[in-house]
Target: Histidine kinase domain-containing protein
Amino acid sequence: ILAVSEALGQNFKDNPEYAEYLRQIRTQVDRLSHLMQDLLDLGSPLQLSRTDTQSINEICRASINLWRQLPQEYTNKIEIISPSEGSDLIIACDGPRLQQVFINLIENAAQHSPEGSKILLEIPEPDEDSIHVRVIDEGSGISPENIERIFEPFFTTRKRGTGLGLNIVRHIVDIHGGNVTIWNNDPSPGCTVEVSLPRREES
Model:
């Protein structure tokens, strides 16, 4: 379908009457592609394909760049806040898997935030054993009755949501030996999702 829409786009690129229809086709194909990948991930045990030592700063920056390349209409501003030695915060991880964690979290934050609002990826000073990354948005937050269910598969508060993104986040973080928590910001607005991962000293 995507190949056909691209071919049609070339044939009708000078005809604005069809441009919006083709854009909608591409958007829906991309949405279905992501849904299928999420279902495949959910239906099979997640495993680390490979691990190596990487800077958490670099993983966050790569995740932001990849998210910006996705077809979307969000206008949120994304900023990384980290300690001065952030480039030296090293973890052992499957890079592409961990990037998917932050892509999903950024996407979730953008979906629940006002257009043009800021999304922060904050890397606070690490603990002795753990590195933390907080994704902070300025959205509406999560109601008390939903906050305990937010990581359940297929649970969503969005009309067109799949309820898979945050569940996959939790699974990927789990297989890295970490944990993920979420809370409403105080003061409001918005909420924070914190990913905690085992720290590895740079050799």
Observations:
- The first helix runs from residue 2 to 11.
